[in-house]
Design a protein that fits this description.
With 471 residues, the protein is α/β, with parallel strands linked by helices. The chain is built from 5 helices and 33 strands.
Length: 471
């Protein structure tokens, strides 16, 4: 479907995270609800992009390739060259340039001739942090007569190659469909925060790294609408239970589409949808491929009753048409409109959540003795999350019977040998007593030897005395 021929219109109320154009400055209004007259047409053609804050840039917050320019009135730089406005910097940029933004609020929406300055270029924009630099996506007040179409989108980079945003907050209208950057080849968003719902990012790839999504109280943070390959790496999603809508009608039945989720966190105080809400019903002969890797965390999300997962699910059975393949750490877990298995271990996780949480209700049969002496009972377990039932037999081995050999080797305690190693039983006092006894034996032997010697001498003396007497 050609974007400019889209006929589908959604009448959606506008949230009040409005970005209001004031002269050449862009200011965010308070987050309050402001109803919009559906018949009102808002003129946004006079909106220009500039900055609010003309204070010098902070050296420690700037990308290493950009240094503070000597012009203190500048708030936008390419290298050391400062410019009076963002438009002026983009106009003078070359393919591959990095443009550093100071503190303040910026936009290129409806800037005169801006597409001629960005077309065919790859540009990187670096801010001073998510609480210092703000970029407004699209119209400050979208035209209510064009709700549900791409015409409220931001054409600032129509025809650009790769556009990268770093260290800033990107702001969109919270409840307006079909907003975002129109027809960039590839987008990269790194170390940023995104407020509000967006549809259009890279028309080839869109990559989000270490980015926080603050969606609205009732709506999705992002649709995978325009990007055949969309990657979320180390991202955090805050919202009211709706996060990533995996759906398109822009490229219906034209190509396979891939969504990669790595080490992401999905947080809500109110359960609504799974982390990824999927609709593959209009993909024709093509498929969605969803890849979960690393450690993905959910808080406040309930497991889907069909997929038995907090990470992905469907709004209804019609949206599960069999054109989806889900892998976890490279292991297929969902295909052909059903789970591959209810119990799968992967490198970093387990599928399903019922299996991971051991959330089963068990029913046990009686133990029945088998012919070989073992025991068997029937077990049924039912997943508390999805109702998946498994039945199996549990076997308990027969008790080990003693053999004749083992009997002959056994010595009953009543027939234990009476002779034992006395050293193993003696106390330290008894050991000393044994040593004393040994010493006594040695002394008596020495005494007996001495007496024997004396007896020999006495005998010799007697013989000599007898001979002398008889002479």
């Amino acid at each position: 479907m050609n974007h400019k021929q889209m006929l589908k219109v959604f009448a959606v109320p506008v949230s009040a995270a409005f970005i209001m154009g004031i002269g050449h400055q862009v200011v965010l209004a308070d987050e309050t609800e402001q109803p919009i007259d559906a018949t009102e047409t808002v003129d946004t053609t006079t909106e220009q992009s500039t900055t609010m804050d003309q204070s010098p840039i902070q050296q420690q917050d700037v990308n290493a390739s950009a240094t503070v320019a000597p012009q203190q009135t500048s708030n936008v730089w390419i290298g050391q060259q400062g410019y009076a406005s963002l438009e002026e910097a983009v106009k003078n940029s070359n393919d591959g340039d990095t443009i550093t933004l100071g503190e303040g609020r910026f936009t290129l929406y409806n800037s005169p001739n801006i597409q001629s300055y960005t077309k065919g270029k790859s540009l990187t924009f670096i801010g001073q942090g998510i609480d210092k630099t703000y970029w407004g996506i699209g119209a400050t007040v979208p035209d209510p007569s064009k709700f549900g179409t791409e015409y409220n989108g931001d054409y600032s980079f129509d025809g650009a190659k790769t556009v990268t945003f770093k260290d800033m907050t990107l702001q969109s209208k919270a409840k307006i469909d079909y907003l975002g950057f129109i027809r960039i080849d590839d987008t990269i968003v790194e170390d940023c925060k995104i407020n509000g719902k967006t549809f259009y990012w890279g028309y080839k790839t869109a990559t989000f790294k270490n980015t926080t999504f603050d969606d609205t109280d009732t709506d999705y943070a992002i649709w995978t609408y325009s990007s055949p390959i969309m990657t979320f790496d180390g991202c955090t999603f805050h919202g009211a239970g709706k996060y990533i809508n995996v759906y398109t009608d822009y490229s219906t039945g034209k190509e396979n589409r891939t969504v990669n989720i790595n080490n992401c966190t999905f947080i809500t105080q109110k359960h609504n949808k799974s982390a990824l809400n999927i609709n593959d019903s209009n993909m024709g002969n093509y498929k969605y491929y969803v890849n979960f890797t690393g450690h993905n965390v959910t808080e406040g999300i309930q497991p889907h009753t069909l997929t038995c997962s907090r990470l992905f699910g469907f709004s209804n059975n019609k949206n599960n048409s069999g054109r989806l393949v889900v892998k976890m750490d490279g292991v297929p877990i969902w295909q052909d409109a059903k789970m591959v298995s209810h119990s799968i271990d992967t490198a970093n996780d387990k599928y399903t959540d019922g299996y991971k949480d051991d959330a089963f209700d068990y029913t046990y049969g009686e133990w029945v003795k088998q012919e070989d002496g073992s025991f068997k009972r029937h077990v049924k377990r039912v997943c508390q999350y999805c109702g998946y039932a498994e039945e199996y037999d549990e076997i308990k081995a027969a008790p080990v019977k003693p053999t004749e050999d083992s009997k002959s080797q056994e010595t009953p305690a009543s027939k234990a040998p009476t002779t034992v190693n006395t050293m193993s039983k003696v106390t330290p006092n008894k050991v000393n007593a044994v040593k004393a006894t040994t010493n006594d034996v040695d002394t008596s032997v020495q005494t007996n030897i001495g007496l024997s010697i004396l007896g020999v001498f006495a005998g010799i003396a007697g013989i000599l005395g007898y001979r002398k007497k008889n002479k």
